[in-house]
Amino acid sequence: MLFNSYVFVLLFLPLVLGGFFLIGRLNKHMLAHLWLVVASILFYGWFNFSYVWILLFSALSNYGCLMLMRTFRNSGRGLRGLFLAAGLLLNLGLLGYYKYSDFLIDNADRLLGTSFAPLHLLLPLGISFFTFQQIAYLVDVYRGQGEADIPFLEYILFVTFFPQLVAGPIVHHGEMMPQFTHDETLRPNANNLASGLYLFSIGLAKKVIIADQVAVWATRGFDQIPELTFFQAWFTALAYTFQIYFDFSGYCDMAMGLAKMFNINLPVNFDSPYQAVNIRDFWHKWHMTLGRFLAHYVYFPLGGSKGGALRTCLNLEVTFLISGLWHGAGWTFICWGGLHGIALVTHRVWSACGFRMSPMAGRLVTFLFVVVSWVVFRAQTWAGALKVWRGMVSWPDFDGQAISAIVKPGFSAGESLFIMTALLAGCLLCRNAVDRFHRFRPTRWAWSETAAFLIVSILLMSRISPFIYFNF
Q: What is the reported pTM?
C-alpha cells in the first residue's frame, strides 16, 4: 500500500488510527500492539502477499537468535558470538539471495564464461531496511547494549511498524521500543494529531505535486532521448536531482508525520542536504539513519579513524562502497558509492592540509558534485550515464527547443526553467519541513496549508507512483 494512494489516505489510515485509540481507551497495550502489527502486515501484504512470509520469517529467525543469546547470556561471549554469527549469516544470506543473486550470476557468467540462468527473484519491499534494523539489534545485544528479554509482540511491532517499514528511517530499538510501552501513546493527543497531519500533508505534496512531475522529465532525458545536448543533459540531471530529493524527503516527512499521529517519534532522516557546505555535511543530512548505521556497524568496526590517515581513508572508501551496494545490485550503484567515498577522503585530506572554502563556495561545489554523481545512480546502464555526462561537458547550444523536447507535453521551455529555478531556490534557501513541523502551531494558516496540500495532492493522485527508495 502506498502512502500516496486513495485507499491509504481515505480508508486505511482513518480506520487504523481510530481503532488504535479506541483500543487505547481500554488501556490494553497488548491488544493495541496487536492491532498495529496486524495493520502493518496488511499494509505490507497489500503490495504482494508473498512478501509477508519473508518478513515474518526474518522477524521470527532474528527473534530466535535473540532468545538464544538471552538463554546463554552467562555462557561467555564465544557462545553468544556463535548465535550472533548465525543471525548475521541469516540476515545477509536472505538479503543477498533476494537482492544480489542475479547480479552475482551475471558477473560470474562474464568472468568465468558460464551461462547460468538468472533467477529473476522478486525483491521484497523494504528488505534492506528491516534487515539492517534487525542486524543492529543483534549486534547491540551481543555487545550488551540492548535488551534481549523482550516479548515477541513488541519485537514484531518494532520490525513491522508501517510508517517506517518499507523505506525507513532505519530505527534503533533504544529509541523506539520504550515509546510503545508508554500509557500516553494509547491516548489521542490533539497536538500530535494536528502536527503529524501537517507534516504528512507536506510530504504528500512533495511526492505528488513535485517529485512525480519532474520524474517525467528525468525519464525522458535518461531513457527516451538517444543523445543529449548541453542544456538537455543538465536539465535531465537536475530533474533527477530534484525528483529523488522531493521523493525521499516526502516519504520521510510522511513517515514521521504518520508516526506522530500515533504518538511515536521517529528519528529525523532528512535535513536539507542540498544546503550542505561540504560532502561530509551532506552525509550528515541525507538519509541520516543509514549514515548512523554505517558509522556504528561498518566504519567503526573497521577501525574508524584510529589506524592512521591511510587506514582511515580506506575505511571511509569501503564504507561507502558498501553504501552504494546497499542501494542497488549493480556496478553503477557501487560506482556512486565509490565516488562519494573518494569525495569524503578528498575533503578529509583538504581539511587536514588546513585548506578552507567559504560556505557559499562549499555549497556550490558540494551541490554540483551531488548532481553529477546522481547521474550514475539513476542511469540504467553505463552507456546511459555516459550519455548524460557527455552532454553535460559538451559545447552549450542555447537552443530552447532542446529543453522543450525534454518537458513535452505540458510545459514550455520557459515555464519548465522557471519551475527548476524555483525548486533550486527552495532546496538551497528554504527552511525544511521538519523544522516547520517542530515549530507547528494549530493556527488558521497552518490548517489552511494542511487542507490545501491534502486537497491538491488527492486530486493529483491519478496514477500509481512508488517511492524511489522502495527499490532499495
A: 0.93
327 noted as active-site residue: yes
DSSP for residue 440: -
Task: Give the contacts of 470 (CB within 8 A, at least 6 positions apart).
Answer: 125, 126, 166, 167
Retrieve residue 349's grid coordinates.
585530506
Give the SS3 label for residue 240: helix
- The three-class DSSP label of residue 27 is coil
Burial 118-140 (b: 16+ CB within 10 A, else e): eeeeebbbbbbbbbbbbbbbbbb
Active-site annotation holder among 29, 327, 340, 347: 327
Q: Is the peptide bond before 267 cis (omega within 30 degrees of 0)?
A: no
pLDDT digits (tens, 9 = 90+) for 374-398: 999 999 899 999 999 999 998 877 6
How much is the pLDDT for 409?
65
* Distance from the first to the final alpha carbon of the chain: 17
Gap between the Cα atoms of 7 and 317, Å rounded: 43
Compute the distance between CA of residue 23 and CA of residue 193 in angstroms, rounded to an integer: 17
Residues 6+ apart with CB under 8 A from 455: none
- Between CA 282 and CA 380 the distance in angstroms is 25
Question: What gap in Å lies between CA 272 and CA 313, rounded to an integer?
Answer: 26
